[in-house]
Write a structure and sequence with these properties.
The chain has 250 residues and is an alpha+beta fold. It has one domain: L-fuculose-1-phosphate Aldolase. It has helices at 4-21, 84-93, 106-113, 127-135, 149-159, 179-201, 211-216, 221-249; strands at 31-35, 41-45, 62-66, 99-103, 139-140, 164-167, 171-176. Helix 5 (149-159) links the parallel strand 5 (139-140) and strand 6 (164-167). The longest helix has 29 residues, at 221-249. The radius of gyration is 18 Å and the shape is globular. The protein starts with a helix and ends with a helix.
Length: 250
């Protein structure tokens, strides 16, 4: 019988590699964590002297620590992210959160520093992303590294109960009940950020879709929005890894 804890490590590894494949993390920066059930510990993507970058994350890089980044479970050769307080403080304050992602997508960065508004400029193209824009995305206006709990607190306050926060001049923080939900949510937001930036680059004003159209857009459910999209990116990642392996062999 599969160990659910080890399965969680595997999902975090896949999430890291998916996000990097889609250009949402840069080189060695960005990290994913998940709450371990019935404990005050998390699995989180760490770094070692053999660091190759988030795109090439291995299961060994996913280490177990407590909400403060401490604990006897972490291998001594691995270092927890400097911005672990982003994860630990969210888990302390929001017990329903099961996964936290911190990433640095370039399009979201540009939208943030140019103060572009995220608006529902498309509908059926990507319904979850449209709803993010419709509900509003909180923006944390500071660009420092979140290396201490007191530095995480104002960001978490601005984020509130929302599942996503844009950190101006820095990146994004995304939460979800599961690794799959948080990962797909981050990927959908990346689509919204790309559309927002590209629409602005045309020099024309993109109107919001109509309330009548919004009303007709269904909730397609977690299977459609999370499970199937997760499986798509897992398949894409596997095929991309095979191409890289074949290229290395030739």
């Amino acid at each position: 019988m599969a160990d659910p804890t080890e399965e969680l490590r595997e999902k975090i590894m896949l999430s890291c590699r998916m996000l990097a494949m889609e250009g949402m993390v840069d080189r060695i920066t960005g990290h994913v964590s998940a709450r371990i059930a019935d404990s005050e510990d998390i699995w989180i993507r760490c770094r070692s002297p053999q660091e190759d970058g988030v795109r090439y994350t291995t299961v060994d890089a996913i280490q177990r620590v407590d909400f403060d980044g401490k604990g006897p479970h972490k291998s001594e050769q691995y270092q927890a992210p400097n911005e672990l307080p982003i994860h630990g403080e969210i888990y302390k304050m929001r017990p329903t959160v099961g996964c936290v992602i911190h990433a640095h997508p370039p399009e979201a960065l540009i939208c943030g520093i140019t103060e572009l508004k995220f608006r529902p400029i498309f509908g059926a193209f990507n319904i979850p992303a449209m709803r993010m824009a419709l509900e509003g995305i909180p923006v944390f206006p500071r660009s420092y590294l979140v290396t201490r709990p007191e530095l995480a607190a104002p960001m978490i306050e601005i984020m509130g109960e929302k599942s996503l926060c844009l950190m101006k001049g820095h990146g994004i923080t995304v939460t979800g009940k599961t690794v799959e939900e948080a990962t797909v949510r981050a990927l959908n937001f990346n689509i919204l950020a790309k559309a927002t930036l590209q629409a602005a680059q045309t020099g024309r004003s993109a109107p919001d879709i109509s309330p009548e159209d919004i009303e007709k857009l269904p909730d397609l459910g977690s299977t459609f929005n999370d499970s199937w999209i997760w499986r798509y990116y897992a398949r894409k990642l596997k095929e991309e890894d095979l191409r890289l392996s074949d290229r290395a062999d030739t």
